[in-house]
């Protein structure tokens, strides 16, 4: 880089910058063409010259993510030189700068955890919560770094933030991050035991299930084995024994214990794939593939249409089609006939004339078709809505509501048909053509289908979302953190 450009960045002189651009319009372009370069933005961020730094970003925004020859971005350098305002201005320009990986995979978030800067830690996670799942080249999470650098306050904050987060991936983070294994197979519990951090051990044990407590590292050691394998420092023997007792009381076992499960998750998964596929599993797989193949926009459109259909069919049941004058005439005929017989007559009930009887039968047949098709349409739209709902916990309440709504529809159909029958007692046999038993059976069958879908989704959420999976961190540590979702991806979803 030109010495005058370097001097302008160090002093924050914007006038010199534009003089250089006036003499050579491609001066910044040539800098940008070099993959790794100590740009004027790096210099200005290190010196804390905010005006010059923001002017440089306006001229060439790509400098904000460029690494210099040492593997640092401008935000890394601003943090290293404690230029708080420079860091905040860079963060305002691009929140994603928190996740820029520099040397050894360290992000700015990793840097503030190492230094124990809780103020920046709060700010970074506020603007970019996804940064918490970034790992270094050694597969270390922010929790590993906090423990290894003795930043207990930062560790406490991270745990508290994690269990209170309302991010859409918070459930996965809470299950995986504290049990995540680094390149040596050490979880946060292993690291805390190695470094004699009883406070950290206590916090971690409250969040881990027994399977994660007994996770083995690359040497085949569990957290309970650590105090015995590492040399004891004088004055810290009590801490070692305390850590060992805490782990043991929490259900910790030695790596050589016969009580540890002999079958790993990977071998269990292989055996499960070798088995014969059940009919239910085939159906679930087909349904899941079909659902995932529908584009997001199309699914939203279909959901809107199904809701409109449900509304229309339910309204039609509340207000069935008006009966024509033929039925009114037949009813008048019945009233006149009853009046002629007198109130004390016990004679047989007369029927309408043959012509009106035929018309009445045709009308009732049409009414039968209305109730049948309206019922089928309602349930088809309801089941399709249940199928298309996303796999989220809140959708369980929607499914339960749909089931209750379907029960209301069943009762409404029963009341409407019985009301129609009581209007024409003289023709009760013919009203049997409305086929109330058939409609009842149809309603019950389709309601059962919806109830089964609701039950399946509820069981899926309870078993595969709330229950931690054994060995999920150690078995899949070679994959990126955001892809380690065996608990979710290996089971079909509706």
Structure characterization notes:
The two termini are 58 Å apart. Helix 4 (40-47) runs antiparallel to helix 5 and helix 4 (40-47) packs parallel to helix 6. By secondary structure, the chain is mostly helical. Helix content is 62%, strand content 0%. Among the domains are: 1-93, Serine Threonine Protein Phosphatase 5, Tetratricopeptide repeat (Alpha Horseshoe), CATH 1.25.40; 294-469. The protein is built from 26 helices and no strands. Mean pLDDT is 77; it is low at 330-341, 426-434 and 467-494.
Topology summary:
Blueprint (H helix, E strand, L loop, with lengths): L2 H9 L2 H10 L3 H7 L6 H8 L2 H10 L14 H7 L3 H10 L14 H8 L2 H10 L14 H7 L3 H13 L5 H7 L11 H7 L3 H8 L4 H4 L12 H4 L7 H13 L15 H10 L4 H14 L3 H23 L6 H17 L12 H35 L5 H30 L12 H29 L7 H4 L10 H4 L5
Helix pairs in contact: 1-2, 1-4, 4-5, 4-6, 8-10, 10-11, 13-14, 14-17, 20-22, 21-22, 22-23, 22-24, 23-24
- Sketch the major β-sheet: none
The percent of residues in helical segments reads 55-70%
Number of strands: 0
Structural category: mainly alpha
What proportion strand?
under 5%
**Poorly predicted runs:** 330-341, 426-434, 467-494
Total helical elements = 26
| Termini Cα gap | 58 Å
Q: Overall pLDDT, averaged?
A: 77
Kindly provide the radius of gyration, computed on alpha-carbon positions and rounded to a whole number of angstroms: 36 Å
| H and E string | HHHHHHHHHHHHHHHHHHHHHHHHHH
Net shape: flat
List keywords for this structure.
disordered C terminus, mainly alpha, 26 helices, 494 residues, Serine Threonine Protein Phosphatase 5, Tetratricopeptide repeat
């Amino acid at each position: 880089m030109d010495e005058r450009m370097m001097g302008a960045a160090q002093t924050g002189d914007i006038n010199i910058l534009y003089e250089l651009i006036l003499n050579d319009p491609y001066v910044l372009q040539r800098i940008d063409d070099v993959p790794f370069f100590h740009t004027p933005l790096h210099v200005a961020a290190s010196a804390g010259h905010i005006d010059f730094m923001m002017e440089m970003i306006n001229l060439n925004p790509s400098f904000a993510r460029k690494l210099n020859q040492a593997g640092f971005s401008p935000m890394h350098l601003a943090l290293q030189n404690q230029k708080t305002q420079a860091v905040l201005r860079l963060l305002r320009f691009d929140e994603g700068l928190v996740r820029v990986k520099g040397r050894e995979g360290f992000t700015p978030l990793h840097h503030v955890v190492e230094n124990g800067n809780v103020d920046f830690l709060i700010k970074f996670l506020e603007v970019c919560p996804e940064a918490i799942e970034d790992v270094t080249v050694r597969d270390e999470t922010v929790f590993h770094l906090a423990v290894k650098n003795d930043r207990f306050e930062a560790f406490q904050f991270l745990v508290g933030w994690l269990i209170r987060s309302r991010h859409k991936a918070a459930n996965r983070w809470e299950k995986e991050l504290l049990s995540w294994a680094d390149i040596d197979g050490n979880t946060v519990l292993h690291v805390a035991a190695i470094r004699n951090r009883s406070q950290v051990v206590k916090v971690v044990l409250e969040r881990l299930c027994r399977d994660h407590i007994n996770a083995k590292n690359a040497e085949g050691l569990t957290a309970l084995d650590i105090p015995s394998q590492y040399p004891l420092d004088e004055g810290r023997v009590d801490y070692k024994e305390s850590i060992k007792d805490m782990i043991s009381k929490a259900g910790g076992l030695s790596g050589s214990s016969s009580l540890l499960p002999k079958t790993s998750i990977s071998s269990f998964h292989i055996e499960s794939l070798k088995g014969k596929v059940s009919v239910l599993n085939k159906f679930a797989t087909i349904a899941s593939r079909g659902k995932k193949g529908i584009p997001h926009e199309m699914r939203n459109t279909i959901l809107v249409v199904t809701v409109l259909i449900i509304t229309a069919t339910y309204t039609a049941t509340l207000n069935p089609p008006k009966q024509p004058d033929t039925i009114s005439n037949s009813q008048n005929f019945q009233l006149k006939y009853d009046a002629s017989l007198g109130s004390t007559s016990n004679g047989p009930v007369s029927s309408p004339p043959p012509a009106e009887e035929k018309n009445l039968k045709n009308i009732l047949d049409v009414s039968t078709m209305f109730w049948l098709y309206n019922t089928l349409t309602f349930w088809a739209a309801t089941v399709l809505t249940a199928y298309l709902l996303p796999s989220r916990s809140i959708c369980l309440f929607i499914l339960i509501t749909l089931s209750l709504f379907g029960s209301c529809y069943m009762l409404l159909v029963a009341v409407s048909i019985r009301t129609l029958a009581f209007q024409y007692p003289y023709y009760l046999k013919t009203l049997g053509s409305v086929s109330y038993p058939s409609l009842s059976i149809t309603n019950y069958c389709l309601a059962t289908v919806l109830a089964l879908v609701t039950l399946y989704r509820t069981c899926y959420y309870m078993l595969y979302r709330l229950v931690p999976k054994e060995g999920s961190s150690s078995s899949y540590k070679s994959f990126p953190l955001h892809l380690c979702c065996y608990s979710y991806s290996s089971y079909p979803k509706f």
